Amino acid sequence: MIGAEAIVKCLEKEKTEYVFGYSGVAIDPFWNKILDTNIKSVLIRTEQNAAHCASGYARISGKTGVCAVTSGPGATNLITGIATAYADSIPLVAITGQVNSDMIGSDVFQEADITGAVESFVKYSYLVRDVADIPRIFKEAFYIASTGRKGPVLIDIPFDIQNAEFPGKFVYPDTISMRTYKPTVKGNMVQIKKVIKEVEKAKKPIICVGGGVHLSNATKELREFAELNNVPVVSTMMGIGVMPTEHPLYFGMVGNNGQSYANKAMNESDLLLMVGARVADRAVNRPDLITENKVMVHIDVDPAEIGKNVGPTIPLVGDIKHIFQDFLAQDDHADDHSDWIATINEYKKTALSKAKKAAKKSKYVEPKEFITKLSNAMKNDAVYVADVGQNQMWSCAHHIVKNGRFITSGGMGTMGYSIPAALGAKLASPKKQIVAVTGDGAFQMSMMELATMRQYGVPVKIVVMKNGYLGMVREHQHFAYNDNYSMVELKGDPDLSLIAAAYGMGYAKVDGSSDLEKELKSFLSDDTSALMEVIVDPKALTK
Questions:
Q1: What is the pLDDT of residues 94-146, one digit of tens each?
Q2: Which of 28, 225, 230, 232 lies 20 to 30 Å from 446, alpha-carbon distance?
Q3: What does residue 365 show for φ and ψ, rounded to 5 degrees?
Q4: What's the burial of 412, exposed, middle or buried (CB within 10 Å: 0-12/13-18/19+)?
Q5: Helices 367-377 & 390-398, crossing angle to 10 degrees?
Q6: Could you give the percent of the chain with pLDDT greater than 70?
């Protein structure tokens, strides 16, 4: 056995189904040995998207995503994908080839110090120096990636180590014990009892959920707790889908781009449970307001996040699923907050009546109306993958999550995320309907993955909201620079009907004169790849 075979055996032990990546000489020993296994390799068309594919796969499967690329530019191209996963705490193991061990530091062809380059964007990184260390390193890497606050781990493996003879018998560790890494799982029972008492006392409690609830697979427990205590729920962008959109206790997304009534409810609450959220600037731009005149409980698996941006009254470190299971075991009676919920519903009613405008005849599709109609046409358990830009803001506000998932790039805001992430999501759950919604700018950042979809027969529905601009930046320049636009007009865009035809996809185009319900029904009627071009007013705003 050589090192490359040992790597593949490690992946088999971790029950890896797919490895997304790109070939190159420095990683070829690994790709050569994976041919002899049941692990499926997926050749993406640019390395960044290997990480995005692995991210989409991880988020829907609940497993650790795996990607592998070659050294030098292959590895450096992967960095944005790794950073995107790190910002949203997505468990990945990224494998990179490296030049021969004795050449490291010599500036030879396609050498890059990738462990140094990704230091800010990984939970941990390894440079393999001894072939005998491969089983231990992979066991540790998967453990680190998938426990505590989840995230990417990088393993850099020189070419000679992949080809080196593995000494003795291959043994994959059954257990793991790392002196310097022991994430907290169970919450402190004293703190848990304090939280329950505060919930019982509160007149105006609210729960703000973040992406950590999804990562902990705790949606069932959180919904049960909210329903038992009749507590309203709001979410950050990453927490969308923890509660079904039309659940009577759910009041939408908070933050700069969130619902005004959700922000108002959070500010006026007397008890705020911040669950699996970083309290970052996009969700809470005025941390002082959310702690004013209230008890704040911050629950997170990462102790570094608690108190980083805002000081909680009651900090509670641990895995959210375990903590809410303990809440439910300790909480033996239902609370009534119906007056408080009625107040928030009034805020919501007022805000929606102000926002409601009479529909005008136009040659363009109204994007908010389109997103809602798309949601209604999608299957109950469908996965909606939003890209970044105006399409993301419209999606967050107007997509209706039923029993499916909503995923997007939140922390890093990486354009081009949706198509490769949707590809990974479809491979994770082939029977689910997967819809990627993107803008025409972001589409051109990852349209090369249509070839990957075609090569591996991965059917994804892609919606392109086309307005001929980098719409979110144009909107910023509209307000900040009095319509003095720079570097936002997308002249020279391709004909999307020809792009769809080139990749063997179905195609539809809708504008203001189209029957949207009819077109969407046809678009979503089967499980084949298709592209829908939606003509949107270039001047359309997210609010």
A1: 999 999 999 999 999 999 999 999 999 999 999 999 999 999 999 999 999 99
A2: 28
A3: -85, 135
A4: middle
A5: 60
A6: 98
Buried b (16+ CB within 10 A) or exposed e, 176-210: eeeeeeebbeebeeebbebbbebbeebebbbbbbb
C-beta separation of 171 from 135 below 8 A = yes
Start-to-end CA distance of the chain, whole Å, equals: 60
Q: How far apart are CA 205 and CA 385, in angstroms?
A: 31
Tens-digit pLDDT profile for residues 433-451: 999 999 999 999 999 999 9
**Tokens in use for 314?**
């009651």
Locate 165 and state its tokens: 């003879």
- Per DSSP, the chain holds a count of helices (H) and strands (E) of 23, 18
Question: CB-based burial of residue 267 (10 Å sphere; 0-12 exposed, 13-18 middle, 19+ buried)?
Answer: middle
Residue 304 CA, chain-centre distance (Å), reads 21
Amino acid at 491: K
Q: What is the distance between the alpha carbons of residues 20 and 52, in angstroms, rounded to a whole number?
A: 9
- Which long-range CB contacts under 8 A does 195-199 form with residues at least 24 apart? 195/273, 195/297, 195/314, 195/316, 195/327, 196/327, 196/330, 196/331, 198/271, 198/295, 198/297, 198/314, 199/229, 199/231, 199/271, 199/273, 199/331, 199/335
DSSP secondary-structure letter at 171? -
The pLDDT confidence band at residue 360, using thresholds 50, 70 and 90, is: confident
Which tokens in the block code for residue 227?
């329903």
CB 277 within 8 A of CB 301: no
**Residue type at 101?**
S
**How far is 116 from 394, CA to CA, in rounded Å?**
38
Question: pLDDT tens, 402-421?
Answer: 999 999 999 999 999 999 99
Strand order across the 383-386 sheet: 405-407, 383-386, 434-439, 461-466, 530-535, 506-510
Confidence band for 36, pLDDT divided at 50, 70 and 90: confident
* CB-CB contact of 277 with 212 (8 Å): yes
Look up residue 486 and give its two tokens: 């720079």
Round to whole Å and give the CA distance between 250 and 268: 16
Helix (H) or strand (E) holding 159: helix 159-163
Read off φ and ψ for residue 227, nearest 5 degrees. Answer: -70, -40
For the question of whether the overall pTM of this predicted structure is more than 0.85, the answer is yes
Question: How far is 33 from 38, CA to CA, in rounded Å?
Answer: 11
